[in-house]
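Dear H.,

Thanks for agreeing to be a second pair of eyes. The structure we're designing against is below in token form, covering all 276 positions.
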């Protein structure tokens, strides 16, 4: 039985262009075998014995779109965990969300590449602990259908709690932890509006309307600079006046350039849209 399909430089070139077009991931020539392995696994599962045939199917067959979704699930990196880079989320809640609620607003918050949901669930816990959960709107999205269905079910593996720091004391009110799984409380799951959104698609992003806090962490690193610039432009366009964008602690917008102002607060970096 074939366990891996060969990938010629030409087939690699058309596949890397397809993947860049669909999800923005950039594969260099040096990644040919890596991409070949991922494509092979999916193509063989789908019953193909040639990557070129698989490519034609994805591009031109009516069933290609559903298979593309399955391929995307196999290509994305869903690495995430509860309480990751917690200081950023705490700052967003205490300095941006809470004051807006106090002023009578109903802030809108978007976790823009939420994977299996640990990030928006962490945010929802912080809000609930301050009595703010029903005073905000939380949208959480990802491109991966598989990741989103895990998030919506709220049943995650023990690795979702692999943060270096111990979970904050309030975690036990919201998470039911057993040796083999972590179950998120129904109240948190219900509080989040789950969507499938491709960050490359400007019209999907614009369909969310204006947002006060956009959290887009640990995904820009997978994009080529031009794609990352495009995504940041789309996200910036979705921010309300004075709204903020949070990116991962190892990501920076300086290299890409942005009209947003970079601010530092207590060691946390954020990007803020100008007030009128
Ligand atoms: C490493 S996870 C980050 C999860 C979370 N934000 C965190 O920091 O823990 C990256 C996520 O980005 C998603 N992603 C990749 N490309 C995307 C795209 N073009 N549009 C939307 N989501 C995308 C992946 O499916 C994956 O779930």
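And this is the sequence the design step returned. I haven't edited it by hand at all.
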């Amino acid at each position: 039985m074939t366990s891996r399909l060969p990938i010629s430089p030409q087939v690699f070139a058309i596949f890397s262009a397809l993947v860049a077009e669909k999800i923005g991931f950039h594969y260099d020539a040096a990644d040919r075998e890596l991409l070949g392995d991922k494509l092979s696994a999916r193509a063989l599962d789908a019953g193909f014995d040639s990557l070129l045939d698989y490519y034609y199917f994805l591009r031109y067959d009516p069933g290609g779109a559903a298979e593309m979704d399955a391929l995307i699930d196999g290509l994305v990196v869903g690495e995430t965990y509860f309480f990751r880079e917690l200081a950023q989320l705490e700052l967003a809640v205490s300095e941006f969300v809470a004051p807006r609620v106090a002023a009578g607003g109903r802030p809108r918050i978007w976790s823009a590449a939420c994977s299996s949901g640990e990030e928006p669930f962490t945010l929802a816990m912080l809000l609930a602990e301050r009595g703010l959960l029903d005073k905000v709107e939380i949208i959480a999205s990802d491109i991966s259908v598989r990741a989103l269905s895990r998030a919506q079910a709220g049943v995650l593996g023990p690795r979702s709690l692999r943060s270096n720091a111990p979970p904050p004391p309030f975690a036990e009110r919201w998470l039911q932890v057993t040796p083999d799984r972590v179950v998120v409380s129904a109240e948190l799951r219900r509080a989040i509006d789950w969507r499938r959104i491709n960050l490359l698609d400007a019209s999907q992003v614009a369909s969310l309307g204006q947002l006060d806090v956009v959290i887009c962490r640990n995904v820009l690193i997978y994009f080529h600079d031009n794609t990352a610039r495009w995504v940041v432009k789309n996200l910036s366009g979705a921010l309300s006046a004075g709204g903020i964008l949070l990116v991962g602690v190892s990501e920076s917008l300086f290299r890409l350039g942005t009209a947003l102002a970079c601010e530092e607060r207590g060691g946390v970096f954020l990007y803020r849209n100008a007030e009128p």
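Two observations from my side: The two ends are 64 Å apart (CA to CA). DSSP finds eleven helices and ten strands in the chain.

Warmly,
E.
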